[in-house]
Amino acid sequence: MADTFALKDGPALAAARKAGVEPAGRRPRRMLSGRNIMIYGTLFVAAVYYLLPLYVMIVTSIKGMPEIRLGNIFSPPMEITLEPWAKAWASACTGLNCDGLSRGFWNSVRITVPSTLISILIASINGYALANWKFKGADVFFTILIVGAFIPYQVMLYPIVIVLREMGIYGTLTGLVIVHTIFGMPILTLLFRNYFASLPSELFKAARIDGAGFWQIYFRIMLPMSLPIFVVAMILQVTGIWNDFLFGVVFTRPEYYPMTVQLNNIVNSVQGVKEYNVNMAATLLTGAVPLIVYFVSGRLFVRGIAAGAVKG
């Protein structure tokens, strides 16, 4: 009998049963159970589905055009070249300009950094006030703000063009920063309001009893506890603003075009030979910043969502 246990469950479990002690807890599951095979098989297929285009983009971007013309897009490069990356960055033509994506990159940085910082700062204060300092009409204000998040951007394009023109900042980076800041406000306010509402109210009440005011509680108590939700807001804003095409092409002039608009001009250029390796390199360069931001701070992003970012 002991041999049967040893063969079936292992020597440790057999010894425990021989001593008359039954193990506690769940019985270990087999690694190759039908359930695990189905779960991991599905995940593997999904991973291949999403990673295959990325693989094609990478290998195409480091091939020369003679090799690309052979037609096998899945084969690894016979000779690796970084010339397409250099051309995409510094000399690819976007209309009349042939300075690559470098100008668009710095335009995107000048747009993304202030838009992200200003919108997160204002939205965090809004969410803090709506969660902890109930003022008259707070619920109405919050409802109007949330409704604004569901208004299609296209409906607002022409009125915003008129407003920016009257302010004298249409076609400038300043105008585009203001637009991104305003349109990011509703969803960020909702995130911060829900996060601050999920924090223990006793902390706020104790600070009030000790005589702390609005700004003291915000800077000394709320901010130190809010790193995860700030990372969530940062990832959402950086990803949304960096990848934006519509606002960039509507509210700026060619010299201020962000990276995504220049990428569109490179890919859709009809002058000369279609250089697929340059197009792929330009696409990877454009998407590199959001990917780096997410991979660096992805764990804090998950923590922020789990800690109350989407709780009511």
Q: Could you describe the 3D structure shown?
A:
With about 300 residues, the chain is mainly alpha-helical. The protein has a domain at about 100-310: MetI-like fold (Orthogonal Bundle). It has 15 helices and no strands. The longest helix has about 35 residues, at about 275-310. The termini are far apart.
Topology:
Layout: H1 2-9, H2 11-18, H3 34-61, H4 65-68, H5 83-90, H6 102-132, H7 138-148, H8 153-167, H9 173-198, H10 201-209, H11 214-222, H12 227-242, H13 246-251, H14 259-267, H15 276-309
Summarize the structure.
This protein has 312 residues and is mainly α. It is built from 15 helices and no strands.
Number of strands: 0
User: If helices are DSSP runs of H or I spanning 4 or more residues, what is the number of helices?
Assistant: 15
The SSE string, one letter per element, is HHHHHHHHHHHHHHH
Tertiary shape? flat
**CATH homologous superfamily caption of the domain at 102-309:** MetI-like
- Beta-strand content estimate: under 5%
Q: Helical amount among residues, as a percent range?
A: over 70%
Structural class: mainly alpha
Q: Provide the CATH topology of the domain at 102-309.
A: MetI-like fold
The CATH architecture of the domain at 102-309 is: Orthogonal Bundle
- CATH class type of the domain at 102-309: Mainly Alpha
Q: What is the average of the pLDDT values?
A: 83
Main pleated-sheet profile = none
Which regions are unreliable across 5 or more consecutive residues at pLDDT < 50?
1-8
Radius of gyration over C-alpha positions, nearest whole angstrom: 27 Å
> Separation of termini?
57 Å
